[in-house]
Amino acid sequence: QVQLVESGGGLVQPGGSLRLSCAASGRTVSSYVMGWFRQAPGKDREFVAAINSGGALPYYADSLKGRFFISRDTAHTTYLQMNYLEPEDTAVYYCSAGPQPFSRASYYEPTSYDTWGQGTQVTVSS
Questions:
Q1: Per-residue pLDDT reduced to its tens digit, 47-93
Q2: Strand 10-12 and strand 120-124: pairing?
Q3: Could you tell me if 54 and 110 are in contact, meaning their C-beta atoms sit under 8 angstroms apart?
Q4: CA–CA separation, 119 vs 39, rounded Å?
């Protein structure tokens, strides 16, 4: 069974950067797709980024391309580098994992992921 623990959230000023980490444990985690979603107060959970099991194929929400970057290492940690943060990025960020295979569309759908972390708060404010 895969378990996920996020870290790295906090308060940052507009224009700043944060790097979120998601530590995954479990025998099969290396074969899982890893994703990041976020949920702001009063809004639905939305896709942020995902990466395939090999770590070579990232997917991003169109609105976040060029500011957010996802990566994963061989130690089963997935990262979300967030740059030029804006107040609109304020949300709880969730790490997620789902077993392969994924269609291209599946990467963007929260229902494709069967394991979720507890979330980490990111607040962008001056």
A1: 999 999 988 899 999 999 999 999 999 879 999 999 999 999 999 99
A2: parallel
A3: no
A4: 9
CA-based Rg of the chain, rounded to a whole angstrom? 13
The 3 state secondary structure assigned to the chain is CCEEEEECCEEECCCCCEEEEEEEECCCHHHEEEEEEEECCCCCCEEEEEECCCCCCEEECHHHECCEEEEECCCCEEEEEECCCCHHHCEEEEEEEEECCCCCHHHHCHHHCCEECCCEEEEECC
Count of other CB atoms within 10 angstroms of residue 100 = 12
